[in-house]
Write a structure and sequence with these properties.
heterodimer; A: alpha+beta; two-stranded antiparallel ribbon; B: mainly beta; eight-stranded antiparallel sheet; 42% strand
Amino acid sequence: MTDTPMKIVVNCETGVTEEIPLTAEEIAQREADAAAYAAAQAERESAEAEAAAKKAAVLAALAEAAGLSVDEVSAALGA
Amino acid sequence: MTMTLISTISLTSGSGNTLSFDSIPQTFTDLMLVVSARTTGTTNANFAVRPNNNIGNVYTNRTLYGSGSSAASETISGAGVLLGDYAANYVPNASSTANTFSNIQIYFSNYTSSTAKSVAIEGTAENNSASTYIRQSITASLVNDTNPITSMIILIYNGNFAQYSTFSLYGITKGSGGATVS
């Protein structure tokens, strides 16, 4: 059995708090939001991985040109 | 300037992934939402806030965030995008350092005005681990909704809010020399 997602509602006027099940509409909206988040995160991870790879390649090239280790170049550049 | 606690709730069990503050009084100048949360899910949860449950294309978020080893910025806007953005404000999960919760503060300026709302967000998903997606962030957001904010929905998209997750809503009143946008 799948548990129904719940919403906690706090009425700021009365101070009453109640727990109620999400409606079908709210559940559908959540699923749409989650899908959008997942797509954006995948895109971000891809961009970050690409940037990290480019950075590593630049550091390696600088290290080779300077006759230093990648760590030494990275420390010198604060990278 | 005075700051008044409107309402606060600390969850006694991890049974909900959505929390709503309804019937927000319209007697203050600004609002501040302070959240300390954790998810029962097994991965960090995206956290977001939706004023007036507005699901329209009204949100623009500009974020500067760090993950411990790097920093980046991004702008996110569009239909269905919730205040809080995608990159930042992750909530630690059940596998994160025990008894450790996120710290998120969201400030809504002139929330009763009939103009778009300027919002400032700062947050971090606390965790004592070298994890890529434990983030710290500051975000400048615009909610292009000209209605006064009378309610606020808070959501996570993985698991439920864990026990002891706490949500506090404060009302800030301008000082005698202050002004508001109407």
